[in-house]
Amino acid sequence: xxxxxxxIGLGIMGAPIVRNLLKKGNExxxxxxxxxxxxxxxxxxxxxxxxxxxxxxxSDVVITMLPKGRHVQQAIFGEHGxxxxxxxxxxxxxMSSVTPVxxxxxxxxxxxxxxxxxxxxxxxxxxxxxxxxxTIMVGGKEEVFESVKxxxxxxxxxxxxxxxxxxxxxxxLANQIIVNLNxxxxxxxxxxxxxxxxxxxxxxxxxxxxxxxxTVMDAKIPMILDRNFKAGGRVDINLKDxxxxxxxxxxxxVPLPLSAQLLEIxxxxxxxxxxxxxxxxxxxxxxxxxxxxxxxxxx
Length: 299
Prior knowledge:
Helix content is 54%, strand content 13%. The chain has 14 helices and nine strands. The termini are far apart. Helix 9 packs across helix 11 (215-225) and helix 9 packs across helix 12 (235-252). It has 299 residues and is of the alpha/beta class. Helix 6 (100-112) links the parallel strand 5 and strand 6. It is elongated.
């Protein structure tokens, strides 16, 4: 029997996730400050609440997908938040990208009110949110994870309980290091090859089947060659994530020199008004340095 679900946060990722939950036969009550997003999903079968409290009152499981930790904390513990309508045994699944410290704090605050909390950030961006094949990294109690695994399965197809509370958020930050440094490495290589005067598209076809090949390469190089920087993973969101990486790393006394440089690249993109573009636009930072533009044409 399907559980009654609540969902808070209907942005680039949240809205398509809700659509998949509805398609799988779930009853979903939604809330977002963006009333247009709420109304759009209401037309597709979602029920409407006017606050986090309202979502909680009609739900067995509440899912949050919000930009920053402070937004999640406000939605759950703030005025008219989830906790005002929560009951003992309810499960909160936070799918936002926040720090492990924030996840653990929310876990402990939830536990004081008899509410279960899982940190379950995702990877795969908008395309995987749309087709329901997200990778989901989960932190929390195993029995709670097992009780909602079927719900997570309606959103993704690679679902792993990483460990205790905060483990999912830690895995997500590690993921963001790998993905964004991969894009930076690809960008350097593309600019290098362009400046050398070779056909970049043929180079891509030549190397994608070797050790350099990756899911990131196959997702981002076609976008770069098409000069299509419509956001699937926005610069400002990834800037926030890498800031979280560095903050957590400093707390752990872990030096991350490449991630530190990456953070400066993201701040450069933001300073140039590119914060709403896809993180594939990292290539434009390198293009500016080398005074060249990557394209399908040999120049």
